[in-house]
Amino acid sequence: MSEIVIRIPADVAGDFQTFWKDLRVAEALDQSNDLGEPVLSDNFDGGAVAAWVVLITPYIAPVITAIFGYLIAKRGELEIQKGDTTIRMKNLKPSQVKEFLAAIDEYL
Amino acid sequence: MSTYSGLNLSERHTVKSLFRRKVAEPVSLGDRNQVRSTVSYLREVFYLRQQDANVLPVSTLEWSSTSLSFGSKKLALVDVEQANAVSFLLAKSFLYERPIFAYNEFMIRASEFFYSTGQLGASLLIAKKANDKLREYTRSHNFFPHITRPIAPNNAAFEALSSGMVLAFVTGHEVGHLTSNDSETLEEISEWVKSTYERNETEPGKYNEAQHVRFLKPESVQKFDADGNFAGDIILGIKFRDRWDYLKSLQIGEAFSDVLGLVALTKVAIDSNIEADTAASTVLELLEFTEMLMSLKRLLPRLPIRGVATNVPYESTSLGFRRFMFVEVIEAMRKRLLPVPEIISAYWNTMSEVGLKDLSEKNQSGELYSVSNRTVHIARGALLVSSFGHMPEAPTEELIIEQYGPLAGNGFFLASCQKIPEIWFRINCHSDWTPKPENETVPVGYASAICDLANIVKKGTKTEAAEAVVKRQSSLDHSAILELIRHPRKQVFQRRLIGRWPNSVMRSL
Questions:
Q1: Which tens digits make up the pLDDT trace of B62-77?
Q2: For residue B502, what are the CA distances in angstroms to B25, B130, B345?
Q3: Looking at residues A95-103, what average pLDDT do you find?
Q4: Which of A42, B27, B267, B420 is the most buried (most CB within 10 A)?
Q5: Positive/negative CA dihedral, B207, B211, B215, B221
Q6: Hey, are the CB atoms on B18 and A53 less than 8 Å from each other?
Q7: % residues pLDDT > 70 (chain A)
Q8: Mean pLDDT of B367-380
């Protein structure tokens, strides 16, 4: 399934939605491409996380590539399936970004 | 996913996407029943509606529970492997086993985590390292290939561990995350937690008269350059201040959930005739070991890799606060200040006066709190030892005050890790370990494991090469990989080394 999972600390979920919206407008996409209400999760160690599952489409892909830096700065993460392995991106090491972009590209 | 979770089709699909972990093994009937009975007990005691406490037992290779909420719908995924991981560590600690066995557990958990997140090369190299250390340990005694595994028999502890208390606590804690003010009883508990927090929020400083915030400490970041050399620390003071109220609300939420976890655990303790003193010490250690496992899980993807500069952030721990609250909760239950069933209050009243006094004194003096930061100190220390090859000498008190000024708390916090004895990070120095208060088995195992993990992960080219080797081996399916990862544990259980790996791929790594 061509999906990407976005996770971010719950306290910055609202800011992130706004940021996403700005990117969406910059890409001239319509409102249906906004992020919906997040799924909130409380982890056992006391971290509260907001998460979205987003379908990768050719329209959304540029928006996804633009959120990398924001997510890393706010200690968020991205997760994608490649074959039957799950790749998670938590830092901006060039090799990881490359692997991730390749995985997104595969779905387009 | 069964239909009783009350989620519609698309929500179920979302849960599956969000919770894409590798399954460890099917949840056993016994564990399933334990989770069910805990949930139904909490529903009954706190007057919860069915839809307020949907709990699903799972068993994954990321050994951690989580709770999800979709607007008003909520679902907790209780990971049985989390309870298992904590129970294993509790067993090592209660039976005073040697640090190599705790080390082994941390290495296996790390290996499982890397496998679940798709880094098979690192995963198997870690399993291999754990196996090498086990062999080294065995060779240092005269009974090769038998593994010398001295234990201090302790029936009370053994009964406590086999009663399912840990799983009950984990389940209760997750139910706590789903519900906060769903009934009057819970609202009363929630208010009590908040007011207790506020009453104890500040304390006088050690070096000056000012009132200091007690439970919130800023996050620290360790920097490493492209060659993996240590390059200084950052304290996120200002950034932290912005999140203050939010972090406080998180801590209050955790303490509230712990109250429910404690009620669930107490019920099991009563049913299994476990003494209150044993239950209390179980909870204190359970909280620390959970913290260690969760910090390990956060640390693993952040470990420095040679080739690029890395920042390793350490979130401030809420363990100190949770332990502090645990003692407060017990005292409140004894005085019947909390709306919990009478049998629960009566149970904690059976705790010995000496045990309680000791606990309470440790809590008020801050001893329980300060020792709670050691999870962070150990991890920071392990990365320093991995980077320098030895533990650099700690700065003197005068130097810290000179550098940081009179409010030198951050300086002392950063220097604490350098006071940990270097041998804590070297598992082969503990082959003849005997129990001593300053040399606890699980922290030593934890320290050595992180140091070895950092050493493996930083050689990025080696883990990539291992990955390539593994990918060429088509014979490795899920169960074969699990067998390799858990091979060191299997030998510990059998108390004997097995000469051959279950798959030849390990020889080519």
A1: 999 998 888 778 889 9
A2: 19, 15, 51
A3: 83
A4: A42
A5: negative
A6: yes
A7: 94
A8: 87
Q: Do A5 and B117 touch (CB under 8 A)?
A: no
Per the prediction, chain B carries an average pLDDT of 90
Are A46 and B254 a contacting pair at CB < 8 A? yes
**B395-450 per-position pLDDT tens digit:** 888 888 888 877 677 888 889 999 999 999 999 999 999 998 888 999 999 999 99
Domains in chain A with CATH codes: 3-106 (3.30.70)
- Between CA B370 and CA B357 the distance in angstroms is 18
State whether A86 and B254 contact (CB < 8 Å).
no
Residue B3 has pLDDT above 70, yes or no: no
pTM for this one? 0.92
Distance from CA of B291 to the nearest CA of A (A): 7
What secondary structure letter does DSSP report for A79? E
CB pairs under 8 A between A and B: 84
Would you say B302 and A91 are in contact if contact means Cβ atoms under 8 Å apart?
A: yes
Nearest CB to B17; choose among A5, A45, A46: A5
- Residues of B in CB contact (< 8 Å) with A are 14, 17-18, 20-21, 64-71, 82, 116-118, 170, 173-174, 177, 243, 246, 250-251, 253-254, 257, 290-291, 294-295, 297-298, 301-302, 305, 307-308, 310, 313, 315, 318
> Does B233 score more than 50 pLDDT?
yes
* Angle, helices B120-139/B99-116, rounded to nearest 10 degrees: 170
Nearest residue of chain A to residue B239 (CA atoms): A74
**Contact check, Cβ <8 Å, B66/A42:** yes
Beta bridge partners of A78: A6, A89
Distances (CA, A) of B119 to B20, B124, B125, B307: 15, 9, 10, 18
What pLDDT digit, counting tens, does each position of B95-118 carry?
999 999 999 999 999 999 999 888
Residues of chain A in contact with residue B301, where contact means CB-CB under 8 angstroms, are: 88, 90-91
Residue A5: list chain B partners with CB under 8 A: 17-18, 20
Q: Work out the pLDDT band at B186, boundaries 50, 70, 90.
A: very high
Contact between chains at B20 and A79 (C-beta distance less than 8 A): yes
